[in-house]
Amino acid sequence: MASRLLPAALAFAIAACTTPHRASLGEFEAALAAQDSATLALTRWCDARGIADPPSVRALPVVGGRDTMPPGLDVLLQTAPDEPLGYRHVRLTCGDTVLSEAHNWYVPGRLTVEMNHTLESTDTPFGKVVGSLGFVRERLESVRGPAPGCPQETILAHRALLKLPDGRPISLVVECYTPANLAAQ
User: Fold this and answer.
1) The pLDDT value given to residue 23
2) Which of helix, strand or coil describes residue 94?
3) How open is the CA angle 38-180-147, to the nearest 5 degrees?
4) Do the domain assignments include residue 4?
5) What pTM does this model have?
6) Once rounded to an integer, what is the mean pLDDT over residues 46-72?
7) Domain of 164?
8) Alpha-carbon torsion, ordered 23, 29, 32, 34, to 10 deg
9) How far apart are CA 185 and CA 179, in angstroms?
10) Which CATH number belongs to the domain containing residue 65 in this structure?
11) Is the pLDDT of residue 19 over 60?
């Protein structure tokens, strides 16, 4: 009897190693929480899950949609009434897979000229562009499912401030994560 169980157990163990694994929402939340940069977290997630090769995250502009400033934005970003703000509404993709849709209100005056040019003219994600500033993330809200302004199929939404090491905010982001993050790979 033991001789028949061994091949069956071995087959089960091999199948467990080769069967696509559907990630849990908890695993995904932990991966995001481990990084101040959602871009870096998504790049690592994309690589670990084999979503695309190479695991490169791009920010593709969304035409139209919400660009209305949220109430209290000037207080959150600690801006003067006449201080200009930048806005990006993008879909972050890894390969052809949309991982999130993001709204980002930022303070151009707290970034370098080169950073502002890159944000205005390329598909480089915000977190990658400003990474050299050593920003930290202050999560303001985390919602399982869609938050206001997110697509209905959103599985997780984050609202966060990105701050310089001296504490000055550079950005308010609303990130809407898609079900593709949990799909079996």
Assistant:
1) 84
2) strand
3) 60
4) no
5) 0.86
6) 90
7) 24-182
8) -110
9) 13
10) 3.40.1410.10
11) no
Task: Quote the CA–CA distance of 141 and 135 in Å, as a whole number.
Answer: 18
* C-alpha span between 113 and 60 (Å, rounded): 21
| DSSP string over 154-185 | -SEEEEEEEE-TTS-EEEEEEEEE-GGGGS--
Q: pLDDT-based confidence at 11, cuts 50/70/90? A: very low
Domain for residue 15, yes or no? no
Q: Which of 3-17, 35-49, 84-98, 124-138 has the lowest mean pLDDT?
A: 3-17
- Long-range own/partner contacts, residues 31-34 (CB < 8 A, 24 or more apart): 32/156, 32/158, 32/177
Tokens (6 digits) for 102: 């993001």
Domain count, the chain: 1
Residue 14 lies in a domain: no
**pLDDT of amino acid 1:** 53
The residues, any chain, with a CB within 8 Å of residue 111's CB and separated by 6 or more, are: 119, 129, 130, 133, 170
